[in-house]
Automatic annotation (TrEMBL):
Domain SsuA/THI5-like: from-to ranges: 55-269
Alphabetical list of InterPro entries matching this protein: SsuA/THI5
GO CC entries: periplasmic space
Keyword Signal: yes
Source organism of this protein record: Tumebacillus flagellatus
Keywords per UniProt: Signal
Signal peptide: 1-24
Compartment(s) of residence: Periplasm
Name of this chain's protein: SsuA/THI5-like domain-containing protein
Keyword Signal among record annotations: yes
First-listed, main subcellular location of the protein, grouped into a coarse class: periplasm
Family of the protein in this entry: Belongs to the bacterial solute-binding protein SsuA/TauA family.
Amino acid sequence: MLHWKKVAMSTSLGAMLFTLTACGGESSTAPNTADPAQKAETVRVTEVIRSIFYAPQYVAIEKGYFRDEGLDVKLDTAWGGDKAATRVLAGQDEVALVGAETTIFVQQQGSPDALVSFAQCTQRDGSFLVARQNVTNFDWSMLKGKSLLGSRAGSMPEMVSEYVQKQHGIKPLTDNEIIQNIAFDNQAAAFASGTGDFFQAFEPAASLLEKQGQGRVVASFGQDGGKLPYTVFMAKDSYLKSHPQTAQKFTNAVQKAQTYLHTASPEEAATVIKPYFTDVDQDILVNVIKRYQQSDSWPTDTLIDQQEFDNMKKIMKDAGQLQQDVPYEKVVQPSFAEKAKQN
C-alpha cells in the first residue's frame, strides 16, 4: 500500500477555509445536445475539496460544456488529496482534481501506473496575506519581527509562503514567527480574536474578514509566488492511453470554461456556480470571483507548460519536499490541452 502522508500534507490544506458543503449541480446528466440520440459517456471525477477556487470545473458542468462534448460528469468530493489520489489509483474514479505535486509524490512512491496531469484548472496559489488594518505601500519585509498565522509545514500553501518570503529577503521562522498549531477550520476565528499579526487566508475567509472589518487583504501569495500548476485534472497513465478521445473531450470542456471566466463578469460567473455554494452570500461570492480574476488565478488555457512545472519543483525543492527529480514528461501529458487550445 502506498504511503500518502506527504501527499496529504502537500495538497492545498488551506482549502478547508474556502470550502463549503457540496450542494447540487453534481452531474452534467443532460443528453449530448450535438446528438440527442447518443448516450453520454460517464466520467467520474473526484475533487480534493469543494472550493470557489475551482470555478472552471463548476462552470464546465453548469454551462453544459461537458454535456456538449458528449460526457456525463459525475462529481464527488474526496475531502483530502490522499483520498482523491487513492480513488483514481483504485479505479473508483477516472479523474481527480488535485494539486499537481500529487503526481510527483505518487511517482516517488514507485506506482506502477503513474498519475498524469493533463489539464490545468488553476495556475497560482490561491491564498492571500491579510493584515489587521489596511497597509499602504505594503512590502513583504513588513513580516520581519511579526507573527504570521500560516499553513501546516510541508503543505503547498506553506511552501509557497516560505518561498515568497525568501525571495524578499526574509528567513521564515527566523526573522518571524509562523503559527502552525491551529486547525484550518479555526484559523479565521483565531485571527479575528487577535492571534497573529498577519494571516495567510484562503477564500472566502479573506473576504469575510474584510466584510466584518477584522482584516484587510494586502498581498497575494499567488501573484508573488509565480505561475505553477497549482490544481490540475489528472488520471492514470493507462486511462489516458486507453481513452484518448474521452480525455480530449474533457479538456475541450475545461478550455471553454477557462475562456468563459476570462470574459464573464464576476456577477454573471457567481450566478453560474451558485448551486455549488448555496450557503455563501452572493456579494461574497462575487467578491471572491473578482479577486481570483484580478490575481490571475485561472489560466486562459488548460496547458501545463514546462516553465510552470519547473517553478513548482523549484518551490518544492526549496522546501525540502522534492526527494528526487521527476521529469515533466513522466507526469504531464500536454497534447490534449494543446489541441483544445488550438480549437
